[in-house]
């Protein structure tokens, strides 16, 4: 008989927490230790890491659901929503964003940005104006209606992240920040090494 509590899987992740959590359970994904050595890692640490990976999976699913709800609410595609967010932030910082700045931010070609802006302009989401400092460029301004809708929906929902972070102590935030940045760096490294 093992020391798991009722309803717990091998990693300590409760079975009722959803099948997606099992996708990040070390005992399920790497039962023979082919990918992750368990040397010098206690069983308790493995269980706790499994819970952490499950929480990251929950966060990812919540972000995906939020993004989908936002796109449906705004009736815009993924790239369109990223453009709207960029235009809001640029305006808040006093900038006059251009098509080339948007292209660089989104990582898409100038031709694709032109199509995106045409689509947003037809939908009444943006207008193109003379740039205040560069006569060769056009500044892009988000319509007040689109900005208000984005702020009232996605903006308020995204603000919940701030509240969650604010509930931590300064030391806890430093630990979480280090962990998230380290994880992001390792995943980018994996992209370069394995794909």
What does this molecule look like?
The chain has 195 residues and is mainly alpha-helical. The chain folds into two domains: 7-74, no CATH class; 76-152, Arc Repressor Mutant, subunit A (Orthogonal Bundle). The protein has eight helices and two strands; from the N terminus they run ααααααββαα. It has helices spanning 19-22, 26-29, 43-74, 78-92, 99-106, 110-122, 144-166, 170-194; strands at 126-130, 138-142. Strands 1-2 form a two-stranded antiparallel ribbon. β1 (126-130) and β2 (138-142) form a beta hairpin. α3 runs antiparallel to α7 and α5 (99-106) packs across α6. The two termini are 42 Å apart. The model is unreliable at 1-16 (pLDDT under 50).
List the helices and strands and how they pair.
Blueprint: H1 19-22, H2 26-29, H3 43-74, H4 78-92, H5 99-106, H6 110-122, E1 126-130, E2 138-142, H7 144-166, H8 170-194
Antiparallel strand pairs: 1-2
Primary descriptors:
195 residues, Arc Repressor Mutant, subunit A, two-stranded antiparallel sheet, disordered N terminus
Radius of gyration from the CA trace?
A: 22 Å
Treating each run of at least 4 consecutive H or I residues as one helix, how many helices?
8
For the record, what CATH class of the largest domain applies? Mainly Alpha
Question: CA-to-CA gap between the ends?
Answer: 42 Å
Order of helix and strand elements from N to C terminus = HHHHHHEEHH
Structural class: mainly alpha
Biggest sheet details: 2 strands, antiparallel
Strand content: 5-15%
Which of globular, elongated, flat, extended, rod-shaped describes the shape?
elongated
The percentage helix is 55-70%
Query: What count of domains describes the coordinates?
Result: 2
| Average pLDDT figure | 88
CATH level-two architecture of the largest domain: Orthogonal Bundle
**Secondary structure tally: strands:** 2
